[in-house]
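Long-time lurker, first post. I've been practising inverse folding by hand and with some scripts of my own, and I keep getting stuck on stretches where the C-alpha cells seem ambiguous. Below is the full C-alpha cell string for one chain I'm working on. Before anyone asks, I'm not after the true native sequence, just a reasonable design that respects the backbone. If someone could post their per-position residues I'd love to compare against what I wrote down in my notebook.
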C-alpha cells in the first residue's frame, strides 16, 4: 500500500470471527518474516483496524493515524525523511484460535509534498499565446545549464556553441518559432513551386504567422444532445408506408418506442428502441436505489399507416418473488424501504404485412425492498395475424435473429432437445448457474466458476468439467429451419462433436499436486448458416452445419502464504459463433484474374474494365439517354483536342489564315 488507508474484504460469514492487526518484525537470524498468531488487537503502533460486517461479506479497513507532513524547524509529530513509513503488517481472521484467513501488507508511504510555508507574491508573467509564442527556445530543457545542440539556449557560452554549432536543432524545437510558411511569397524559392504560385501567394510579415493560430480557441458552440426523434414522411395522406424488418417502432410523439435491452457489453440499456419483427427475451439486474421508471404504458404506437394504436395492458401481482429477488451484500442506500415495481413485462405485437394491428402487454408487479436485487424480465414477441400457431411467427420458415435455435435428441423417446449457454448470477459459481437458450445470429460468450481443491484428481476433474459442459447440449441434431418437424429427419442437421481428447494421444494424468494439464475448460459451438431465399422481403435463413469442440487449458492451484484448507477456482466457458456462408459456392477465379491483379476491380481503386460503366445499362444513376448524350459529347471533345494538338492541323490552319 502507498496511501494512509486500504480496504479488503472477508468473504463468508463473520459470526464468531475475530480480526486482529499485528506489526510483523523480521527475524534477525534468518531474515524471514515471522508468522503471527491469533489475537484480538485492533491497533498496532500507528495503525487502526476497522471491520464493517455484512451478510456474506465483511469490509476490513486498515488506516494510519499519524501525521504525514514533512518536519519544519523545531517541529515534532512529523516525518523526518520523504519516505515516512516503511512497515510490514499482518491482518488475521480467526475463529476459536484457528486461522481462517491471512493478509500481508507492505506499507511504503511518502510524506505529503504540499507546501505550508510563505508564498511569494511575485508571479511569472506569461505572454498571450495568441499573439506571441509561449516558448522562444523549446529545446532549453535544463535550468542553469547549457543544453547540447540547443543554439538558442542563453546559458550556452560562445565556446560551448562552437562544439555543436553545425548540429543545432532545427525548426520550432530549435528556436525557430516563427518559420516562414509555404504560402508566403518569399517562399517561392522552395523546390517544385507551381507556375500559378505568384498569383495566390500571401504577402505578410513573419509576426503574423499561422503557427500562432494553433493557440487560438475562437468561439465555442454548444453541443446538441442526440435525440431519438426522427423526421417522418411529409407526403399527403398516410404518414407511413409501413415497417420493414429491423425498423424502429415509432410512438405518437414521433419518438422511438423503447424497452430495456442488453447491449453488446452485456449490460442493460433502458432506452433501447424496439425493432420490427425482432423478438427478444432479456433479464436485467437492478435494486431499489438505482431503479428507474420505464416508458409509460399509455403511450400510443404508430401502426405503420399513420394511425395510432393503444396498448392493451393487463396488470398482475406476483406472490412468489423467490425467482426474481436475491439478497444484496451491499449497504442499504435507498430513501424508501419498499416500492411496488414491475418484475416482468411481456409485449405481444400482432402484425400483418408491414403494419401493426394490436399490442398486448402483461405487466407483473411486486414489492421490491431496500437491500434486495431484482432480476427484471422483458420479452417481445411478434405474432402474425393470420397464424394461430405461435411456433410459426412470421410465416417465414427460416430463422430470424434473436430467436432460439431449435434442437432435438433423436436417440431418446422424447425428441425434444436443448442447446444452451450459461447465465450466472451472484458469485458466478457453476453450482448456482442457470442456462439460457442459444439465440440465432447472436455470438455470445458465457461461463461459470468451478471450485477445485488442491488434492483434486486430474482424471476426476476432467470428467467433471466435461459433464458440466455437456449438460448445456442435450441434443444430437439442430433444426435447419425454425419450423423443422420432429417427424422428418431431413429437417434436422446432425451435430458434429469433436472429442476433447484424441484417442491416439496420451493424456497426461498430472502427477504434480495442485496441477492438472489438458483440462477441457472451453466449449466452442460453431453454427454455419446461409440465406437461401426470402419471404415478403424477409431473408429466409437456414442452418447448414453445427460443430462442437473443446479447448484445453493448464490448471494450477493458486494460493497465498498457506494452501491448506482452501480451494482454487477454475473458470469454464462456452462460446457460440455464427458463421454466414454463401448459399452457393463462389465462382472460382480465372487464370487471367489470378495473374493480372491490376485489372481486378475488387482489389484495386482504379478499375479499367469499368471505364465506360456510365454508358452501360447497368448504371442507374441517371436516365440512359442523358448518359449516352454526355458520353458522346465527351468523346467529341476528346477527338477535337486530339485533332488540334496534331502538327499538321497547325499547318492547315496557318495556310487557311493566310
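-- Answer (accepted) --
I ran through it position by position. Result:
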Amino acid at each position: 500500500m502507498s496511501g494512509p488507508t486500504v480496504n479488503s474484504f472477508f468473504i463468508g460469514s463473520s459470526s464468531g470471527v475475530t480480526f486482529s492487526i499485528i506489526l510483523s518484525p523480521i527475524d534477525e537470524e534468518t531474515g524471514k518474516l515471522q508468522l503471527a498468531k491469533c489475537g484480538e488487537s485492533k491497533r498496532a503502533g500507528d495503525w487502526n483496524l476497522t471491520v464493517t460486517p455484512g451478510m456474506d461479506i465483511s469490509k476490513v479497513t486498515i488506516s494510519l493515524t499519524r501525521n504525514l507532513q514533512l518536519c519544519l524547524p523545531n517541529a515534532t509529530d512529523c516525518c523526518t525523511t520523504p519516505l515516512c513509513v516503511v512497515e510490514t503488517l499482518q491482518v488475521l481472521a480467526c475463529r476459536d484460535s484457528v486461522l481462517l484467513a491471512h493478509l500481508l501488507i507492505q506499507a511504503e508511504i511518502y510524506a505529503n509534498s504540499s507546501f505550508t510555508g510563505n508564498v511569494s507574491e511575485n508571479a511569472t508573467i506569461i505572454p498571450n499565446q495568441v499573439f506571441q509564442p509561449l516558448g522562444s527556445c523549446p529545446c532549453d530543457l535544463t535550468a542553469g545549464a547549457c543544453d547540447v545542440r540547443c543554439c538558442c539556449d542563453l546559458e550556452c557560452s560562445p565556446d560551448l556553441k562552437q562544439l555543436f554549432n553545425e548540429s543545432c536543432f532545427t525548426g520550432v524545437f530549435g528556436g525557430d518559432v516563427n518559420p516562414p510558411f509555404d504560402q508566403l511569397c518569399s517562399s517561392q524559392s522552395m523546390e517544385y513551386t507551381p507556375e500559378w504560385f505568384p498569383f495566390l501567394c500571401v504577402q505578410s510579415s513573419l509576426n503574423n504567422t499561422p503557427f500562432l493560430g494553433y493557440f487560438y480557441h475562437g468561439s465555442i458552440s454548444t453541443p446538441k444532445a442526440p435525440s431519438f426523434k426522427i423526421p417522418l414522411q411529409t407526403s399527403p395522406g398516410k404518414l407511413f408506408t409501413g415497417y420493414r424488418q429491423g425498423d424502429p417502432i415509432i410512438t405518437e410523439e414521433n419518438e422511438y418506442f423503447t424497452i430495456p435491452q442488453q447491449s453488446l457489453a452485456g449490460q442493460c440499456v433502458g432506452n433501447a428502441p424496439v425493432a420490427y419483427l425482432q423478438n427478444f427475451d432479456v433479464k436485467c439486474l437492478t435494486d431499489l436505489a438505482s431503479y428507474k421508471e420505464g416508458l409509460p404504458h399509455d403511450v400510443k404506437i404508430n401502426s405503420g399507416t399513420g394511425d395510432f394504436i393503444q396498448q392493451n395492458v393487463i396488470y398482475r401481482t406476483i406472490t412468489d418473488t423467490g425467482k426474481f429477488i436475491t439478497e444484496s451484500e451491499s449497504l442499504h442506500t435507498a430513501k424508501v424501504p419498499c416500492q411496488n415495481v414491475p418484475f416482468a413485462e411481456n409485449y405481444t405485437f400482432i402484425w400483418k404485412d408491414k403494419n401493426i394491428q394490436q399490442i398486448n402487454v402483461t405487466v407483473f408487479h411486486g414489492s421490491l425492498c431496500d437491500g434486495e436485487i431484482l432480476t427484471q424480465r422483458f420479452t417481445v414477441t411478434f405474432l402474425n395475424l393470420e397464424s394461430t400457431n405461435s411456433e410459426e411467427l412470421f410465416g417465414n420458415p427460416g430463422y430470424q435473429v434473436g430467436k432460439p435455435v431449435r434442437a432435438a435428441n433423436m436417440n431418446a423417446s422424447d425428441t425434444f432437445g436443448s442447446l444452451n449457454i450459461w447465465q450466472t448470477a451472484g458469485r458466478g459459481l457453476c453450482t448456482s448457474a442457470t442456462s439460457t437458450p442459444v439465440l440465432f445470429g447472436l455470438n455470445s460468450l458465457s461461463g461459470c466458476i468451478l471450485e477445485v481443491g488442491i488434492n483434486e484428481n486430474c482424471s476426476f476433474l476432467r470428467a467433471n468439467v466435461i459433464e458440466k459442459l455437456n449438460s448445456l447440449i442435450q441434443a444430437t441434431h439442430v433444426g435447419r429451419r425454425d419450423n423443422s418437424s420432429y417427424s422428418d429427419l431431413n429437417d434436422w442437421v446432425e451435430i458434429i462433436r469433436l472429442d476433447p481428447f484424441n484417442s491416439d494421444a496420451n493424456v497426461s494424468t498430472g502427477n504434480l499436486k495442485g496441477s492438472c494439464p489438458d483440462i477441457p475448460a472451453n466449449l466452442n459451438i460453431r453454427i454455419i448458416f446461409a440465406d437461401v431465399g426470402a419471404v415478403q422481403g424477409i431473408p429466409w435463413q437456414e442452418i447448414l452445419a453445427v460443430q462442437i469442440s473443446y479447448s484445453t487449458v493448464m490448471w494450477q492451484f493458486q494460493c497465498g502464504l498457506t494452501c491448506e484448507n482452501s480451494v482454487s477456482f477454475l473458470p469454464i466457458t462456452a462460446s457460440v459463433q455464427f458463421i454466414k456462408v454463401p448459399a452457393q459456392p463462389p465462382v472460382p477465379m480465372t487464370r487471367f484474374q489470378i495473374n493480372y491483379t491490376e485489372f481486378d476491380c475488387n482489389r484495386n481503386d482504379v478499375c479499367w474494365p469499368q471505364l465506360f460503366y456510365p454508358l452501360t445499362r447497368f448504371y442507374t444513376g441517371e436516365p440512359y439517354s442523358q448518359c449516352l448524350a454526355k458520353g458522346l459529347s465527351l468523346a467529341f471533345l476528346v477527338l477535337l483536342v486530339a485533332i488540334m494538338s496534331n502538327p499538321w492541323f497547325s499547318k492547315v490552319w496557318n495556310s487557311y489564315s493566310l
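A couple of notes from the structure itself: The radius of gyration is 38 Å. The chain has a mean pLDDT of 78. Happy to go over any region you disagree with.
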